[in-house]
Each structure stands twice: as C-alpha cells, then as structure tokens.
Hints:
The protein is α+β, with helices and mostly antiparallel strands and 817 residues long.
Amino acid sequence: MSDTRRRVKVYTLNEDRQWDDRGTGHVSCTYVERLKGMSLLVRAESDGSLLLESKINPNTAYQKQQDTLIVWSEAENYDLALSFQEKAGCDEIWEKICQVQGKDPSVEVTQDLIESEEEHIEEMPETSPLIDLPTCELNKLEEIADLVTSVLSSPIRREKLALALENEGYIKKLLQLFQVCENLENTEGLHHLYEIIRGILFLNKATLFEVMFSDECIMDVVGCLEYDPSLAQPKRHREFLTKTAKFKEVIPITDSELRQKIHQTYRVQYIQDIILPTPSVFEENFLSTLTSFIFFNKVEIVSMLQEDEKFLSEVFAQLTDEATDDDKRCELVNFFKEFCAFSQTLQPQNRDAFFKTLAKLGILPALEIVMGMDDLQVRSAATDIFSYLVEFSPSMVREFVMQEAQQSDDDILLINVVIEQMICDTDPELGGAVQLMGLLRTLIDPENMLATANKTEKSEFLNFFYNHCMHVLTAPLLANTSEDKCEKVVGSTKSNTICPDNYQTAQLLALILELLTFCVEHHTYHIKNYIMNKDLLRRVLVLMNSKHTFLALCALRFMRRIIGLKDEFYNRYITKGNLFEPVINALLDNGTRYNLLNSAVIELFEFIRVEDIKSLIAHIVENFYNALESIEYVQTFKGLKTKYEQEKDRQNQKLNSVPSILRSNRFRRDARALEEDEEMWFNEDEEEEGEAVVPPVEKSKQEDDFPDSYEKFMETKKAKESEDKENLPKRTSAGGFKFTFSHSASAANGANGANSKSVAAQTSPASSNGSSSKNATLTTAVTASKGSLVGLVDYPDDEDDDEEEETSPRKRPRLGS
Length: 817
C-alpha cells in the first residue's frame, strides 16, 4: 500500500530556471546518524540507489503546492521539489516535516519567507493554484494548442494543466469539438486538435489516460491523431481499427470486463506503436506512463485468463483434439503465443505460477502434436511458445522429455520432433532452424542443469539424449558424407570427394556442426564415446572439400575444439585414422590464397606447436613434413620439426642411459618406470588400457586390406618415379593423393606403417641431390636406431607387428628412435 503512496519524482531547478527530473523512487522520513537529524530519503525504484538525502533543517522554508508537491531550497541556487503520485503520501511527509519544525500541518509554508526567498518562489514557473484554461470553442483551439505545448518543458506546469483538464472534464469537450471540425471539414482546427491531443498524451498522467482510452473516447482520440499537420493526407487509423483489425475469440470470453480490457490494450498499443511518432531522446520519459498503462493492462489480462481454468482447459482440449480443423488450430496456437508474450510482463513469482499452470494443463504434449503439423504458420507459432518455455525452465522441458521416453518411440519424442523441424526447415536462410538450434543448445547445456543430492539431471539427461536423440541430429551429416553420396569427379586427375551440398544443405550441416562442437566442449565423456563409435571426425572432415568455405571452416572448427581438449584418446584416434590428411590437403589446395581457411588451418598447427602436443607433432612431422616444409611465410611447420627433433634427442639420451642388459632383453612394460610422455610415444601404435572406457571405433576396413593397399601404394610409387615433376605436393595421376593413407581407423596400424614413407619416398628426381641425400641419411639413421628399441617394451600386439614388418621392411619406426 505504501508503495504507491510514497512514490515520488525528484526535481531540481537548473540554471535556466527549468525543473530537471532526477528520477522516480520511494520517499521516507528517517533519522540519519551521519546528518544528525531527521532526513528525507528517496531511493530509486529501478535499482534502489539513493536519489535524495536531505536533512530537514528547522529553518528551511518548505512549501506545499497543489496537494502533491513539496518545494524547498537547500542552498542559494539549489531548489528541490518532490512530486507525489498520491495526495495521501504528500500529506504524510508534510506532517513529518511540520513535526520536525514544530509547525501545524495545515500551513502551506513552514517558515516566514524573507524577502529574497519570496521573490525567488514567485519566480518559480506559475505557482498560482491552477492554470486557467481558455473556453473550449473553435476559435480558441490555437490558443489551447499553444498552452498545451508551452507547459511540456515544466514539470510543475504539466501537473497543473493535467489537474485543470481533469477537473473541468475538458477532454470530452475537446472531442466534441473534433466531431464538429470533422463535419465542417475544418482542416486548421483538426491540425490544432492533433497538437492538443498529442500534448495531453505527453503530460503522462494515468488519470487522463483513463478518460482518453475509455470506450466512448478512444476512437475520437485516434481520429484527432489522424490529422498530423506534417502529412498531406490524413491517415485512416480508425478504419483499420474498426474494419481491418478483427478480434478473434478462439473460445468465447464471457467476462465483459476482460473483453473490454483486451480491446483497450490492443488499441492503446496501436496508438503507441503505430500512431505516435518514435519519441526523441528528450521525449522518452513523456510516454513512460503510457507504457506502464499497457503493461498493467497485460498483467491484468493474463491474471484474469489464468484464473479462469475452465477457459484454458477448453483451449487445450480443442488444441489437441484431432477433430479440430486447421484454421481453428492455427487461431488457438496464435492465442497461446500471444498469451505467453503477455506473460513476460508478470513478476517472476507470478510468471512461475503461470508456466506451472500451463505445464499442469499439458502445454508440452500439445506442442509436440502441433510442432509436427504441416502448416508453417502453426509450426512457427508453436516454436515461439516452445522458446518461451525453454527460456523459462529448461529443466521442466527436460523432465517431460525423459518421462515421455519411457512410454513412447524415439520418433515422436519432443526433442526429436524439434530436431526434425530443424532439419526439414524449408526457409532458404533456415531462420526457424537457427531458432530451434538455439533452443536445443539451451536444453543440452550442462550449465543450466540441476544437481541435487539424490539425482543428477546432467548424467540422466545426457544419457537419454545420446541414446535417443543424437542419431537423429547427426543423420543429415552422416548421410551427406557417406561414400556413396560423395561422388568422384569424372575425367579429372582429382580423386577429391565432392559433397552434394547445395547452399541450404550446407547451412544445415553448419548448424549441426555448431551444435556438435558445443557438445565437444561441454559433454566430455558422452561425445567422446559417440565420436569414436561412429568415426564421426572422419565423416566431418569430408566437408573440408565443400565448395562452401563456411562449411569447411565449421568442420575445421570441430576438429580444432577436439584438439583443444588435449585429450590423448582423441589424439590417438586422430593419428591412427590419419585425420590430418584432409586438413593438409585443404591447405595445399587453397594454394597461395591468404584467406580465413588458410589462417584457421595454420592456427590449428600453431596451437599444436605452442602446446607441445607430442603425439600429434610426431605424426605430422613424420607423415607430412615434406609437403609442408615449402610453407615458409610462417615458422609454424619449421617449429614443429624443431620440437620433434628435440624430443627425439631427449628420447635417445634416455635410451642411452638405460643399461645395455635392459636393451638386449625383453621385459614387460612397467608404467612406473616410464614417464608419462615417454609412454605416450611408445604406445603410439598400441591400444591403451583406457580403451575399455571408450568403446572401440567401428571398423570400416579389416587388417587384411593392408597388403592390397601396400601393393597399390607401390604401383603408385613406381608410376610416380617415372614422372619428371616438381617437388611439390600434388595429387597423383593414378588418382590418389600423394598421402595415400588407409581411410579406416582399424587399418591405420598396418597401413600407416607402410604409407608413412610415401611423402619421403616420392621425392621426384627433379629435387636437389642435397635433399635426396638428406632423406637417405634420415632413413638410414631411422632404420639403424630401430633395433635398439625393439626389445625394450613388451607390446600386447607384438605378433601382429612382426607379421607386418615381414610385409613392410620399411615400417615407420616408433618415436623413441
């Protein structure tokens, strides 16, 4: 109750003798220790900050004006005024001031004013009790318009004018004049009335709004606002409001007060949004009460509808009834959309109750049905409602979806319906899909998941999502990167796979990749399992060949996030699957172009160098250095080589310090005896103990393929040696890349060993003798040092290695060499 009674605006008088609004807040009269006396305090209603702290001095002259104003001077040139929303609040504070000064509250001024102060008060704009309004006649309209526009700059005069208009029922008289002017086609009079009515709106008084926006007056007010003097022809707002704008009752509203409120709110909103010009910076506060008027009307409408459970139940029943025709359903969904939009005006606790009411009535199952419908408008409105729910409480939506999963198939789960809507968006710019992707991201974001003592929403929901929904989300990605979908370019020397990605598909794949990249960052365990089981990174990297650079960059960003985690499981998966090949091919295909793709690829390698990710450095240098060493405009690749060689030296020193008896005999691996990073090097070709946690990658090729790929490689090598070409990485005439590595994670163990030499071995005869001899020396050194390492560690798959070594005597050495 005291809130509105104590609500005040604080004004100070500026140098131009105009009153400046210092803000709105709530006033209190309390003892302030620092000031050693009773003081007036005003705290801002927006943030609670102190707008005013003024001690009530026994000798200060306080003046009470027009029942709601208290004015006083604090210093020679510092005048203050409090303008109260209600007379009762003004009386209450006035009594307190009089009490402190020992005066009778019936006085208008608490002190006898000295002469100068008397003059000073007289100078204040118009302190006479009321403004005298001219008589309401046609020939006085210009005078009235001048009066209304002249008071707008002075808060006190605005208050007085508002009071005068209210007391004399002046607005209704003005609107009668409007009808006369319109009948007489008196254009000048109509232009004056436009200025008058616009000025009255800018007085910002709720009591005047009540009169102007009543059923009997509002259409005439709109009529006055049609005659803007700056327009050649008047607008036809009334025609629109009465004929074009139709009020649709999805279910008849029996409460006449509610109907009237809905009509009034629509019309006032129309006045604010359409008729009145956008206020300038100086006029922004002029319409704050109009905004509040609309705001409180909306709160009232939502509350009245919410309390009428019979009405809402009926709406829901019709929405989900299969017999409801499409037009009716469209109207019902649009009603709910507007209803949810209005609910944003509620206070947090009331909004909470509002959404709980909707949840109880079954909004989510209803949305599930509606979102799957063919009608685009209905789906779009349903998506907006869904977004309100997700923003309000992602947990409520997650809980519903998990309960639903126990009773129905994956296809009709709400989240899968959402994903399918995202995938099937027909808009070329995918506007709806972008909105849905944002909602999905909110739902799968662990940051807003609750963790209580007895249940962890995060693990439960993510288990559900990866089991029931992830396959639906990745389906378009897997479909567009499968081998039968990516055709080879016929009659070309390129064996590059071209993705069938028109712009819309590319946009969709980019959205899916953005979501998967988010998962890599936030769902460590679940997404790791998924990537490795589905060999997902290999499929994503097919998109590096896309003609749409933004899609290639999305694929690269996905890989960059994975590498950014510096997780050895991922690193081993990348090296075994030889997944740097598509990235390096994209860099080389990009040629000398200095663009975002070039920078992004180089940043990826620079990150690996700076973070010193040893397993990846070794893999890159051993397999791709010959192709990359010509790139000298950055020092990244030389830096990788340096890091690699430093590590090799360090390993050799460690090996040399091991007693010879250990080097000649095999003994079992003992993790404690090896440093972690050494173990990483030695295990490069092994499956690690940790693989038990992450299920193995699905095998796309068998180990048996290895001899075939090796023979193909040897044929390619011979064909290549007979050609006299520049020593630059290119695709071979046989149709393969220079880096012809096995494209399966399982074959990588064997095939990698054989093919790892392809870059070195295929140095063309055109290269300098120096570089050839350097390669030869390197190979000899590598082979020579291999023997000393073999006996050091007992590997679980040593037998396989031995067989492979018989086939491939030039198998790449382990990094310890």
